[in-house]
């Protein structure tokens, strides 16, 4: 049998599209980086650094890469009986100014994320709820964090407890109508990425004009 290929047939790197012209075939997934060892770095209380020695399978080069060993986090989209969202405002050291967020925090060792979510809602806002729904989880920054942030929805939340702020917190609790919350996200008043990923699982955060354009794109 001849090895000659009919030039009219699609080549290995191409495949016919639905409209006829050839398009590039999907590239294979990157290979895992083999790990040869690890060494412990500095402990910063809220995370600990670790240096892994790995080989890049693309070029065979061995290098060190840092991983921040971090506890899992939770945050809560909580609505009160009136349908308003419970938010907190506090000073954040990273940007150096106040931010508006939803309640959340770290999962304690051995603690179930759902238990942590209820605890953080109560400690940071004084609100509790009997109606809880998991919203999945995300990798906050897979470039060098190894943890997940678990999102939860709480409905009919009510103020039942005093705040339990630790010595490093100074929190003000507010309620915000959902339309105002969406507008605050669209205008940048709320800019915490993990707040956006949680709220986007409950409310439509799309820019209306952009959404319409996207829907018109084939």
Detailed description of the structure:
Strands 6, 9, 10, 11 and 12 form a 5-stranded mixed beta sheet that branches. A 3-stranded antiparallel beta sheet has the order 3-4-5, with no helix packed on it. Helices cover 18% and strands 37% of the residues. The N terminus is likely disordered. By secondary structure, it is of the alpha+beta class. The chain contains 4 helices and 13 strands. The longest helix is centred in the middle third of the chain and has 13 residues. A hairpin with a 6-residue loop joins strand 4 and strand 5.
- Report the span from N to C terminus: 42 Å
Describe the main β-sheet briefly: 5 strands, mixed
Assess the beta-strand content as a share of residues. Answer: 35-45%
- What characteristic shape results from the CA principal axes? globular
Total beta strands: 13
Helix and strand pattern: EEEEEEEEEHEEEEHHH
Tell me the helix content.
Answer: 10-25%
């Amino acid at each position: 049998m001849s090895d000659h290929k009919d030039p009219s047939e699609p080549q290995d790197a191409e495949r016919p599209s639905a409209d006829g012209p050839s398009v590039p075939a999907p590239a294979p997934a990157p290979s895992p980086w083999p790990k040869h060892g690890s060494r412990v770095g500095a402990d910063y209380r809220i995370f600990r650094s670790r240096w892994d020695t790995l080989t890049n399978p693309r070029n065979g080069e061995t290098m060190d890469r840092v991983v921040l060993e971090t506890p899992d986090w939770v945050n809560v989209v909580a609505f009160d009986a009136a349908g308003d969202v419970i938010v907190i405002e506090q000073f954040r050291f990273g940007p150096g100014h106040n931010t508006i967020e939803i309640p959340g925090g770290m999962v304690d060792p051995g603690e179930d994320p759902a238990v942590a979510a209820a605890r953080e809602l109560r400690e940071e806002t004084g609100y509790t709820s009997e109606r809880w729904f998991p919203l999945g989880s995300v990798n906050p920054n897979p470039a060098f964090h190894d943890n997940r942030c678990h999102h939860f929805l709480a409905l009919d939340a009510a103020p039942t407890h005093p705040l339990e702020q630790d010595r490093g917190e100074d929190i003000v609790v507010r309620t915000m109508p959902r339309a105002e919350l969406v507008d605050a996200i669209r205008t940048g008043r709320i800019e915490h990425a993990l707040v956006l990923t949680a709220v986007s699982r409950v409310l439509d955060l799309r820019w209306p004009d952009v959404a319409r354009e996207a829907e018109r794109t084939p």
